[in-house]
Design goal:
Elements: E1 6-7, H1 9-13, E2 21-25, H2 35-42, E3 49-50, H3 53-56, H4 73-82, E4 90-94, H5 100-111, E5 117-120, H6 123-129, H7 160-170, E6 176-179, H8 183-186, E7 204-205, H9 221-232, E8 240-243, H10 250-259, E9 266-267, H11 271-275, E10 283-285, E11 290-292
Parallel strand pairs: 1-5, 2-3, 2-4, 4-5, 6-7, 6-8, 8-9
Antiparallel strand pairs: 10-11
Length: 294
Amino acid sequence: MQVSPLIQVEELSSHLSDANWKVIDVRYDLADPQYGQNSYQTARIPGALWLDLEEDLCAERTGYNGRHPLASQDVLIEKLQNLGINNDDHIVFYDDQNSMLACHAWWILRYLGHESVQVLDGGYKAWVDAGLALETDNPQAINEQGDIELKESDFEVVFLAEILDHILGNRQEGLQLVDARSEARFEGKEEPLDPIAGHIPTAINYPFAQNLTEKGTFKDPATLKSEWLAFLDGIEPTTVVHQCGSGVSACHNLFALYYAGLGISRLYHGSWSEWCSDHNRPIVTGPEGNEVPY
C-alpha cells in the first residue's frame, strides 16, 4: 500500500508510541541559523529527533555550488544512521515554515530510496493549535546506530550541466524549469538572499505558498491538481524540473505535484544561487522575461 506523503496531527498523535515511527524536527530560519536548534531544545513534539539543514543535509559551500549544496547520498545515509534511523522506520518530518523544510527533508528521504516518509500537515503550529502535548525537557540521547541503507529511487536530481545544456544549447521540450520563489524575486524586483536578482532563462514562476490554504495547510489533492494543470497549460508534469533560490522551497512544489497525483518530477538543487554564481550565465529580469547578460 502506497503511503500518503501527508499526515494530519491526529493520526501522528496516535502513533507516537509506535517503536518504528520516528518524528524528525527540521525547523530552521534562513535569517537566524540558531533558531531551529534553539526551538527544538525549548519545545518539540514528544520524542522528536533533530536534523539541521546546514549542518546535516548540506555539503560544504564553495561559492559556486549554491547556498545549500546537497550532501552526497553516502553522507546523508550516515547522518540518518547516526540518528538511529532504520530501514523499516516510518518517518514524519515537521517544521514551522509552511512545511518548506519538511518537504525538503521528505524529498531527501525519497531520493535515498526510503518510501515510508510523510510531512506533518501544518507542522508545529498545527500540533500546538490542536492542544497536543509538547516535550520541554532535554532531548533523549541516541544510543543505537540505525541500519538505513541507500536504495534505488525514482526521485532524481538534475545537475548544473544539464541545465546549462538546456539553456545554452538544446532548450529541449522535455525540460521545463519551475521557480518556486516569490514573484518579486523571480522578476528581479528584490533579492534578499543572493547577490544578483532575476531568474534562469525559460523558467516559469509558481510561488510555493500557492500550494497552501490560509491556515498554512496543504490544499486538497483535487484542488492542487486542478490549479497546477491550469498553470502548466499542457506542459507534461513529469517534465518539470523544480528550482528556487537554493533547492529547499522547490521541494514544496515537487511535493505538491506528487500529492496531487501528477507523478514524480525532478529537482535542480543548486537552483538560482548556483546559477547566478557565474557571471557568464544569462539571466532574466522583469515581467516580460527579458533575457540579459549577467
